[in-house]
Structures are given as structure tokens and as C-alpha cells.
Amino acid sequence: MFNRRSLLGAASLAAVSKVAMAALPEPVSQTSPETQPPLIPPTGRPYNPVVTLNGWTAPWRMKDGVKEFHLVAEPVVREMAPGFTARLWGYNGQSPGPTIEVVEGDRVRLYVTNRLPEPTTMHWHGQRLPNGMDGVSGLTQPAIPPGKTWVYEFVARRPGTFMYHPHADEMVQMAMGMMGLWITHPRTRHPHIAEVDRDYAFLLNAYDIEPGSAVPKVMTMLDFNLWSWNSRIFPGIAPLVARQGDRVRIRVGNLTMTNHPIHLHGHEFEVTGTDGGPVPRSARWPEVTTDIAVGQMRQIELLADEEGDWAFHCHKAHHTMNAMGHNVPTMLGVDASDLEAKIRKLVPGYMAMGQSGMHEMTEMQMPGPANTAPMMAGEGPFGPVAMGGMFSVLKVRRGLPRGDYTDPGWFQHPPGTLAREVGDAPAAPTAPGATTPAAIDVNVRKPQGHHDHH
Ligand SMILES: [Cu+2]
């Protein structure tokens, strides 16, 4: 973890008066894209801290019985995947900003400094608070001008999973990555809030960054080309690690422009809470996919009792692709070899794509412009994982130490539990009345008035 002020050196540190230091909590920045180990709360009731995927928890200080945080809205550089870096806006050196983690009943004071080129505010999504602390520019306060610091203060009244984001020039500021998570732990045992072994959290976000550039296009409404979790794209998203038998909670918030059906392999889960609070046990049902609409939070819980590497992803197939243009003709079944040769005379190195599907894209690295995310490039133990974007892996392992979040590597499958190639297969049935594609091709290729020269 880097301390912004310490980077400036001792001379500038001495120039900061003790009075100013006492008034504002030191803003601390995170510069690494790695998942930071959970912050152990120094005082108060112990709780199982949340782990922000490829993110971190905001440090705070206690002052006169109030938990003080300092968020700095500023331009940031985010490595979205190895080899691909974006220029975003965020908080304290990262997008999303640090996760605010408090306990129900805490009085919280939040300093917000604006180092953006335009005004901003902070809205505390889902919180019960005095109306004047709600952070809607023009409605409950004037926007915070560049260079100024404002302070918000309220009691975290409800336990649950919440977010923070600007409520000023929202379209631009959220398209640039300005958002963060807020977790309020229950003060005492709550009938609808389980104690869990692992508690993960991330925000869904999306960017439109042209191949070879680094700044998001802020006018895009739907056709984004980077679908991310905490501003990271697979293979840049950390795995979710669990010990076999762990109860796991995953908190997901959606601040994109579309909904995301989040799907887990190998296990069932229940939605145990929303940004409206915990869901009563009688109102839960088992799922393997839950749709998370725009502006919603969903808190899911599962018993991680099946060992393995389980895919965990958005089920909209386009959202597990990176740097994808959508104005591409479908080439399935088209023989383009002749065409390719002709175009290559005009465009050296031209390559037709997708005549037998797009899987070939996983194995070939197109020579794209510098600073471009590969479309699908995760490398698995059996070859390329044809995925990018909103994709990660739940890694369930026997006998992991409690609180160990390090990547255990790929799963070693017990003998006899792997799908495999076989020699002779039993005859496969065909749908009654089915016509083969070849029979149709004969008709298509012999239109009236033409002669077949073959
Ligand atoms: Cu999605």
C-alpha cells in the first residue's frame, strides 16, 4: 500500500501543518491491482471482514467516537488485465474506490476531496441517512467544485451491502469508473444474516475503450466493449478461493447500463440480501443464476462443498468477451479462402474470421494495436479458456487454512473424474425427419440458370 504523501518526500511532509493533519484523515491510495488481504478491524466488535476482489478496504481513524474516512475523487490509472491499462476516474488511486466497511450503529464521517476537472458529489446508495447527506447535486447540496473538500456525517443504521457513487454528471463520472462498495456488518447476531467463512464483494462495471486507446468513451449507452468486475477483466480477475465446507457470501453490485445474470457452476446459492437489506429466510429459494439489474445489489450465499475450479460468470455471452466490435458479419459456414486471397492483395495480412466459429480467436493473438485487451485469452490447465470480461473461477479446495486467499493453482482432478476422448461411441440418434445441411447446400449451390462446373 502506498501513501501518497510519503511519495512526495520529507520536505513537503514537513510543510503540512499539524492542525491540517488533525482535521483531515490522511488520504491513503492503493496502486496495486491485486486483491488486498482483508483489513482487520483494530477496535470494536470483531467481524469477518469482506474481501474486495482486486481491490481494497478503506483505512479509517477513530476520532471522538466517530469513524473517519477520506475519499479523494481523482484521475487514476487502472491495469484492467495484464498488458492493458486504462485511464479512468476513481477514488484514492483506484477504480472502484476503496470499500467502506463499518458496523451497524457506527457514526461515520466521510471527507470527500474533489481532484477532478469538474464538480462532483457523493451519494451513499441504499443508506438511511438525513436527507441533506444524500449527495444529490442541486437537490440536497451544490456540487463539490474542483479542489474543494466536503464532509458527510451520519450513522450506519442498517446492516447490509451498499454502494457509493457521484450524483453529479453521473453519466460521465460512472462511465469513467467512479464507484465503490459499502458494507455495514450487523452489530449483534441478526436472524437473517449468517456468519460466513468467506465474504467477497465486487461491482459490475463496463467501459467502451477503443483498441489502442486508454480513455473510455463516455457517450456510449449500451455497446460497451469491456465488461468488468471492479474494473478488471478476465484473465485479470482474481479467483474466489474457498476451503471445502466453507460458507461463502458474494456481494455483487451493478453500476453498468444493463443487467447481468450472474451464474455459478457446480453449486446452488440463495440470494440472502439486497441493497434493501437482508432477505427473510422464508423468502429465499435456490438458484444457480441471479439477474442483477442496473442499480441493484445482490448478496448470494452458498456452501462450497464441491471441490474443483468452478466457472463463475455473467451469462450474457457477449459480456465474457473483451475488446469486441459487434459490427462483424456472421461468417459461419462461408468459404472465404478465395475472397481472403483477393483482399490480401489490397490489405496485406488480411484474415477472414469466424468461418467455423470464433474459437480460433482464443488460440491466435491478433496483432492488435498496443494496449488492447485480448478478446478471450485466459489460459487454463487444458488450453485457452474462451472467455474474457465478466468471468472468474470459484476455487474450492480441501484443507485450505482459514482466511487463506492465495490462489491454490489449478485443480488436480481425482482419477476417473475427468471427461475424456473415447474411440468407439454408440450410434447417436437423429431427430425424426431431420434434413442434413449437405442436402440443403446442394439446393443452395445450384440456383436456376447456373451451371455447376465441378
Ligand atoms: Cu453481463
UniProtKB/TrEMBL annotation:
The lineage of its organism: Bacteria, Pseudomonadati, Pseudomonadota, Betaproteobacteria, Burkholderiales. It is found in: Periplasm. Pfam families: Cu-oxidase_2, Cu-oxidase_3. It comes from Pelomonas nitida. PANTHER family: MULTI-COPPER OXIDASE. Residues 83-187, 214-328 form the Plastocyanin-like domain. This is Multicopper oxidase family protein. CDD domains: CuRO_1_2dMco_1, CuRO_D2_2dMcoN_like. Residues 1-22 form the signal peptide.
